[in-house]
């Protein structure tokens, strides 16, 4: 069933051996190929939902934040929606961090289904958000038992 691969492979985007900045082979992607593959996931402008914790808050579960398809995503608008939804004691959400504390600098870095932490003026607090607030069956991780 893979005979279609050689079919639409003729030089659509420059030469087919051209490489992009990450050194990945660039080739046209059929719509049915693009869904499951993590490699393409980042680049697909599909509606995406992230799950957001409040910085330092281990009582409130994460809230889902659906992101619009619009490209590029206006980061100020994302922060404004986060501010409204997170309702942080410290006020406005100034940044969004990954669970390891690194800051996300734009909408194109967000990964569908991932967890993030909304942070205001204070420092990011590294806490076991997922472990404490996400029911075990919905966190896709291997558990030891």
UniProtKB/TrEMBL annotation:
Highest taxon in the source lineage? Eukaryota
* Signal among keywords: no
Instruction: Write out the entry's keywords from A to Z.
Output: Repeat
Entry's Gene Ontology BP terms: intracellular signal transduction
Tell whether Cell membrane is among the UniProt keywords.
no
Of the GO CC terms on this record, one is: microtubule
| Region Disordered, residue ranges | 1-23
Task: Give residue ranges for domain Doublecortin.
Answer: 48-130
Q: What is this protein called?
A: Doublecortin domain-containing protein 2B
Report the source organism: Podiceps cristatus (Great crested grebe)
């Amino acid at each position: 069933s893979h005979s279609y691969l050689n079919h639409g492979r003729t030089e659509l985007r420059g030469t087919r051996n051209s490489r992009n900045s990450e050194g990945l082979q660039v080739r046209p992607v059929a719509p049915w190929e693009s869904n499951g593959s993590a490699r393409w996931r980042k680049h697909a402008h599909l509606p995406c939902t992230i799950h957001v914790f409040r910085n330092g808050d281990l009582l409130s579960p994460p809230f889902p934040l659906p992101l619009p398809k619009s490209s590029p995503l206006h980061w100020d608008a994302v922060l404004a929606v986060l501010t409204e939804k997170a309702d942080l004691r410290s006020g406005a959400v100034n940044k969004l961090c990954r669970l390891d504390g690194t800051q996300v600098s734009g909408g194109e870095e967000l990964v569908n289904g991932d967890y993030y932490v909304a942070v205001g003026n204070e420092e990011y607090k590294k806490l076991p958000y997922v472990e404490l607030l996400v029911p075990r069956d919905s966190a896709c991780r291997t558990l030891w038992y």
